[in-house]
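fyi for ur records
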Amino acid sequence: MSRTSGSGPSQRMLRVGEQVRHALSDLLRRGEIIDPVIETSVISISEVRMSPDLKIATAFVSPLGAADDGAVVKALNSHAKFIRGRVTHALRQMKYMPEFRFRLDTSFDNFARIDELLKSPEVARDLDQDSNDKDD
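which gave:
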């Protein structure tokens, strides 16, 4: 039942990651973390990736309205042990409570860069040539 590391996350890793994401979102929504950087930012948790042994949870966050995204991630990482203790009840079905790591989610930046590339004149010209070739 084991999977190779190149085949991607297992269904269990995905399911547990989603449960952890919900628990973290609820904790942030309730405002239980007393930190001025976190309190003044709206933080979106886009994804939580679990390690294969489910002992490490890497949460990808997008701070909205924060002056310094790095400061928010640093603040979350400094409160990781407190967060771990506060979400224990929501994740009580887990044998081991995962260690939390927070990373900045750059996927939206990547999407914007790809969108910008697709709208560039060079790509538009190439797409127009392809459509003209198909009409012939």
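The first strand starts at residue 42 and ends at 50. thats all i got for now
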